[in-house]
Amino acid sequence: MSQGSRQWVSRGIGEAARAALHTDLPASAVWSLLLDVFEARAHSRAPAQVLHQFERDGFVQPAPIDQRTLIALDAQLLAAAHEFEALELSPLAPLGACASVGPTSQHKIVSALRGTEVVSDPTNVLALECARRLRADGGARVRLATCHRCVRAQPVPKLPGFAPHFRIFCLVSGGHEQANSDFTVAEMLAHIATHLDALDRLQGDGYAFAARRLTLLATPPRAALADRIAARIGGIIVERGALTHPYYDGLRFQIHTRGRSGDAVPLIDGGAFDWLGALTSNRKLRLIASGMGAQLAAYLFRTGGPI
What is the pTM of this model? Predict the structure, then answer.
């Protein structure tokens, strides 16, 4: 969304005040000012107003899946990721955790106070943890996993199972690239194998994932890597294609599966990213990240559950 289309936001605020809030004032002063604003706003709200928002605002309503189902689902997903260290993330991330490394608008993220934002994509937070560890030990190979509820301030598809807040199962691998791009190939294969194992585990625990299909997408310079990856994958239909989405660093994979509705759903998405180079100024570091829509899996693929 362009700044011009949001001029109403700063209507009534002088240019000097707007410049002070955007860039001139120290961040700590802006956070303190906003804390005072929200303190006053919170105390001015009547209880009935709070209840009215709770009844109508999708950001704050409970998830449509029973919590016991989600906890059992997390256990199966993390068991599949036994080669990855499991982290319980904070609900908050540093302000700009997504927008600073990718083509993401901050308007799609719930910005918070004290220089933070509500986690909208756990892979970005896991990438920060990878960067922190690799700055301490550049020769390490970092593998991290998490199951996390995140929030996104963007239009929600009017389809069953979709909501402004939802649970994602994420994997990231970070490390120094090796000869012949062996790190990238090995970690892409590890992510794909882990997600397929997760589907197998869930399949034996009351879920159904029919007609699984893996799509490998690559830009022309990375097509040979995608071919190497495809040649080492068995047990699932593999399709190759061209990658045009600039969000990824030349490689992307998706795992589609058909739910009870009969539609093929891209339940799992992953690929290569250049974020570690941007975060550490070391362009030889590589990041592979992937995620599964865990809440969507519980909603659409659980046997006997709602569609």
Answer: 0.90
